[in-house]
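Per reviewer request, we include the raw input and output of the structure prediction for the construct analysed in the revised manuscript.
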Amino acid sequence: MSKAKKFIREFKDIKTLPHVVTNLSRLIADDNSTMKDFEEVIKMDPILVVRLLRLVNSPFYGLSQRVDSIGRAVAYLGMKNLHNLAVTDALKNIFQEHGKSQNFSRKQLWLHCAAVSICAKMIAERIFATNGDDAYLCGILHDFGLIVESQVDPENFIAACNACTDGIPITVHEQEYMGTDHCEIGYLLTRDWDMSETIQEAIRDHHLEGGSYEPDSLTGIIQIAEYITGQLGYTAFANIAPELPQHLVAHMQESMDEYKVLIEDLPEEMRNAQDLYGG
């Protein structure tokens, strides 16, 4: 068994995503799923029902009539938005502080993942004119392997974090201290959770410095989003901003006017997302 699989096995004994999230993931992956299927899963989680109805009736959607039906709420929100809402809610509870190093805190990691997810969704929709739901989900999940490491092997995890002041990528220190890294762990977890292959691969490759991936791939989008949010201070580790591979730098330079507008609008989009997914 690989080191990453051992980490996941031990993590599952501690805490994992609620069944409702994994069930929604399977429905998303099944082309034959219906709105009714989603409604049946949501009914099993009363807290999510309340959040769903409150969201659909919020000013964000501006509906003229109040929605009191789970089925209608799901129809308004859409299956992927519903799934993202459930994942975000579940992860917020797991990203609670538990041990801390001089370079790392779970609160900081949560803010980083939230910022990357919102920025990635904007990049997908504004720069590449594609649906941004998968980019959002990938952004929320991309660093979840760090949470697994911090729960399963906190001593070596903190040692790897504290070593991350030398300009060497965190993945190198993770491999040195733990024999795996958060990219590999996240990849295997999202595979277990039945996320799409593109999300799995982007999480696996989001620290990749070379390769033939395009800027409009999920890998490219997440790396650009990490770079932009890092420049604004939303980093996973204190004072360590991510580097951007040269072919993505060239892409951003070619579309600099569009990216400048996106960066100006990012704070407002983050406020909107607080209404949509919770702050």
